[in-house]
Hints:
Blueprint: H1 3-17, H2 21-35, E1 41-47, E2 54-62, E3 69-71, H3 75-83, E4 87-89, E5 107-115, E6 118-127, H4 135-155
Antiparallel strand pairs: 1-2, 1-6, 2-3, 4-5, 5-6
Amino acid sequence: MSKHQELLQEFRLFAETAANATALMTHIAQRLHDEFSRYNWVGFYLVDKADPGMLVVGPYVGSFSPNARIPINKGLCGAAATTKKTVVVNDVARDPRYLSGSEIVKANLVVPILAKNELLAELDIESYFANTFTKAEQTFAEDVAQLVGRYLEKKR
């Protein structure tokens, strides 16, 4: 079984007994950060219930403080939010949409988290190494995001 498969199985089991969405997201962020040395910042952005035009930082693990609030139409997070599609940028210096959380970030992967096709959150993974995110990494992150989306759908 691959590391991706092992972690997905672990996350599925954890989701069955997680106290709430925050606990699930915290667990996922910590484990991804721990298991993948090139995942230097892993976190979630949540659609602000009071202001649906904004994403607010949720549970995260990493060596820098992220942007606390991001307009839903700005940056790579905004691109993933508005298109409801994964955004992979393996060299953020070449993408003018990137809103820097840290000068040392080189690659970024953002996956929208949907429940009944409604954007509720995003999984954001940042790396200090260019070309971190392969197609397999993208597929894995999308599987994790789907798992969180299903959890959120059940809890609504």
